Amino acid sequence: MQPPRTGVHRGVGAVRQLLDEALEIGDEWHVEVDAIESVGQDRVLMRGRSVLVGRVSRMPMEDTLFQLFELDEDSRVRRVQTFRSNAEALKAAGLSE
């Protein structure tokens, strides 16, 4: 399974494209959240698993997922960065393991 593309996804269009790409190979996709941690006044780190159910095989495919959310002054998501490892996500947040 290809996990969601890593990197920065800005705006509704970018997030919609990310979801559309995932749903091309599966018709059911969800994220199971393992932990959410505040890493500053306007940032939140999420650790979890991306689960995609294959369109034809119906087999669930799992991959780890680390995302850093930046919030605006109204606590709405302004920016999401997706990482392949906890170490990468912590480094982007200015922290270390």
Structure description:
This protein is of the alpha+beta class and 97 residues long. It is 23% helix and 48% strand. It has two helices and five strands, in the order E-H-E-E-E-E-H.
Key features?
97 residues, single chain, five-stranded antiparallel sheet, 23% helix, alpha+beta
What's the layout of helices and strands?
Elements: E1 7-9, H1 11-25, E2 26-38, E3 43-54, E4 60-71, E5 77-83, H2 86-92
Antiparallel strand pairs: 1-5, 2-3, 3-4, 4-5
Mean pLDDT: 84
Global geometry: globular
What is the N-to-C succession of helices and strands? EHEEEEH
List the uncertain runs.
none
Strand order of the largest sheet: 1-5-4-3-2
Euclidean distance between termini CA atoms:
27 Å
Helix content: 10-25%
Fraction in beta strands: over 45%
Q: Main β-sheet: number of strands, strand sense, barrel status?
A: 5 strands, antiparallel
Instruction: Indicate the radius of gyration in whole angstroms.
Output: 14 Å
Kindly state the number of beta strands: 5
Helix count equals 2
Structural class: alpha+beta
